[in-house]
Structures are given as C-alpha cells and as structure tokens.
Amino acid sequence: MAPEHANPHQIRALFSRAMSAMYREEVPAYGTLMELVRDVNSEVLSGAPEERARLEELGELERIDEERHGAIRLGTPRELFTMRRLFAVMGMHPVGYYDLSVAGVPVHSTAFRPLEEAALRRNPFRVFTSLLRLDLLDDAELRAAAAEVLDTREIYTTGCLELIDKAEADGGLSEADAERFVAEAVETFRWHAEANVPHALYQRLHDAHRLVADVVAFKGPHINHLTPRTLDIDRVQEMMPERGIAPKAVVEGPPTRTVPILLRQTSFKALDEPVSFPPSATNGETAITGRHTARFGEIEQRGIALTPAGQGLYDRLLAETRSRITPAADGSNADAYRATLAEVFTAFPDDLATLRKDGLGYFRYSATGKPCNDPSRGVDALIAEGCLRADPIIYEDFLPVSAAGIFQSNLGDGAAQAFVANPNRARFEEDLGAPVHDLFHRYAETEARSLAESRVALSRTLQKA
Ligand code: OOG
Ligand code: NI
C-alpha cells in the first residue's frame, strides 16, 4: 500500500457501515434487532464494570454494537473468483472450507475476513460466502436451465469491476476511489424485488431446494443477513418476541457456559416478501407477483478458539446431543434440546485453567511484569509463579453445523433435505482461484508467537533484576 492509498481496513469499515445502512432500510425488523442488541449490551455493561473496563482497554467498547458478519450465496465459479478479488481490496481473505452438504444444504463455503488480530480490531467485518452446487441436484434438465440463467447474469457493476482492476494494478485505491468502490460494491448485495426468471421456473427451482431458488431466481446475491455481537445471547433470544420479532427455535452452537467457547448464534426468522416475476418469453406465462423468504437478522456471541483436540471434543458432544434429540423448527422441543445439550456438555471442561492444561483451547501469553527466577521453565510453573498470564484467544471463524441450522431455519420450516456428505475443497479452491487459509493455523501461530515474545520479555526482567 502506497502512502496515497486508502487503508484497506478503512475501506472495510466504510463498506460494513454502508451495508448496515442499506440493510436497515431494506429490512426494518433488522433495525429493531439492532436496537434490542444495543439495549441488552448496555444493560450487561452497566451490571459488569470490570467487563466494561476490559472492553474499554481493548478499544472495543465504541464498536460493540457494530456488525461482525454478513452472508451471501453465489451461483457460479466466475462470481466466486471475482468476489475473492473484490474482498481483497478491503483486506478480507478466504479462511476455512465449510461443506454444508452434510447438513442437507447444497453449497460449500468460506469466510472472507481480515487475517491479523490488529486488522480484526480495526474492523472485524466478515462475509460468510457460499457457492451453490448444482452438481448435487438430481434433475439434469433443471440443472441445465439453472446454469443457463446463472451464466447470463452479471452481479457486479462495471464501475466495481474497473476499480477492482485498478486496485490490483496499483496496489491500492485513492481515498476518492475507495469511496466510489464502496458505493459500487454494495450494489451487488442489494435486494431486487423483481425475479430473474418466470414464476413456473422459480417454483421448479424451489421444489428442488429452496436455496436453489434463492440463488438462481434473482439478479444478484442479496445480502441475506447481517450479524451484530451481543454480550448476552440468551437474553436477546428471550426478548425478541417482546419486540415483535420471531426468533428461531434454538440458539446454535455450544450451551450457556461459564467460559464461552467457539461461537453461539441465533436469528429471527426470514421475512416473507413480495416478488414480481416476469412473463415467459416462450410459453405465454404472464407476469405475476409471488412471495419469497430469504432475509433475516442474526446475532452472535464468541468465546475461546479451540485446538483440533478441543474442536474434536466439541464435534463429538454436539453429535451425541443431536443423536438424542433434534431441535424441531417450531420450537416444540426447545427446552428439552437445551437440557440435553447442557447435560452432554458437562463433559467439556468449563474453567480456563483446565482448558489450557488439557490443550483444548488457544491462549495468548503475556509477561505480567513480575520478575521470575527461570524464564525457560514450563508454562505452568511460570503461571504459578505469577510472572506469566494466559488469556483466551477469541474464535473468529464459523461452525458448519451451526451454519446449516441458520440456513435451515431461514429457508422455511421443513426445508431439510438429505444429501450425502460430499466435500470438494479442491474444486472450491480451483473456482475461488486461491487456496483458503487454514483455520487452526492462525490461532496456533498467535499462541506460539505470544509465548516466544513473553519469554523474551521475561528474560529481560531477569537481566534487570
Ligand atoms: C449462511 C449461514 C451461515 C453463520 O453465521 O453461520 C452463517 C447463509 O444462510 O447464507 O452466516
Ligand atoms: Ni451468519
């Protein structure tokens, strides 16, 4: 980045604010959810001065209510390839590969996000990005019809494509170009109330899978939700009905715990919206107004990132819970699901010391400033002596089973459908035009670096003493 260029993190901040403003205007219920989140966050903070001070020190307080992520669904490899280039302009890169076919959703996904901690702190906005997998549909004729529609649509404005080229050629954008770029880029994610296909084709796509209709029948990948951070997800879930919004049946992810792990998410159910369908050019079908559900609002609460061992334990316990009880979309067994989840997860240690000693979570180490006798000793001894401290590293990624739960609850009840698990990371990366960053690698690296730096700092205190 040359000095005359806008900082990519600044462009991302502009972009996430523009998306938020657009979405609040398009989906008023989302504005209501934002207000509720703000109210609950300030209630939590006024009752917890220590947490407030900690967040203030981290510089997180002023951005506490801002969006953490959004989600889109793309139709073709070409769209995905360009989306990677678009997000790179804003310092967002693909991290992780998520196969959602396991959970009956015909897509595979990645998350475009800032990589470094400092960048996440500047602005944490991420976009969960899915690519439709027409290859998972049985009906060959429908597959061909869908591919034809997708191949002829252009989801990017000419101005946006030009500015991506320019950013790549020059290694960045000027401030003025950055503003234009954000204005052009949000156009791709805008809602279009006019479908791209006649109603009969929409219906066939919809019958194959609601998600297929959501991707193929529209002019572009409308943002389907945005997600602010809450400090108390259970409280927001409980209060949504009071504010006139209908929550999904259960909170996805781990149960309520003393030490939060990974990611908990919930959403309000997608709106049923009017859509106008064009007449058919070939069979005399007339234009009609129909309906479509796709857009909703979500909230998230994050906890400590888990090591592969910790993630393995989480996956096993979640699978065990779900083998005992599957949450019903209508919420009829929500209490029983919550109780079973809590009971099964008693097997997951719930204090930081054990999580660390058992190698289940990632930690950031720092020297406390107290001189110590021998900095080369083991971590446990240094912590016991009070010269080293360990703080949890927060999970910044997503969870495939939770993502599937969010998809399902917003595609309408009963949309679940079985596909055979069928990951195809190589194909995804080929379409993307780049490998995805490994999910665990970054946390492990942060932990290792913090420990090495702490040992250096400790040996300095030793020399001074
Ligand atoms: C994406 C669902 C995944 C999350 O928070 O896990 C997601 C979608 O519905 O397109 O956003
Ligand atoms: Ni989401």
UniProtKB/TrEMBL annotation:
SMART domains xrefs: DUF1338 (SM01150)
Transmembrane segments: none
Pfam families registered for this protein in UniProt: HGLS
Enzyme Commission numbers on file: 1.13.11.93
Record keywords, A-Z: Dioxygenase, Iron, Oxidoreductase
InterPro entries, per database record: HGLS (IPR009770), YdcJ_bac-like (IPR047869)
Cofactor(s) this protein cannot do without: Fe(2+)
GO molecular function per UniProt: dioxygenase activity
EC class name: oxidoreductase
Matching PANTHER family: 2-OXOADIPATE DIOXYGENASE_DECARBOXYLASE, PTHR39479
Family stated for the protein in its record: Belongs to the 2-oxoadipate dioxygenase/decarboxylase family.
Protein name (database record): 2-oxoadipate dioxygenase/decarboxylase
Organism listed in the record: Salipiger thiooxidans
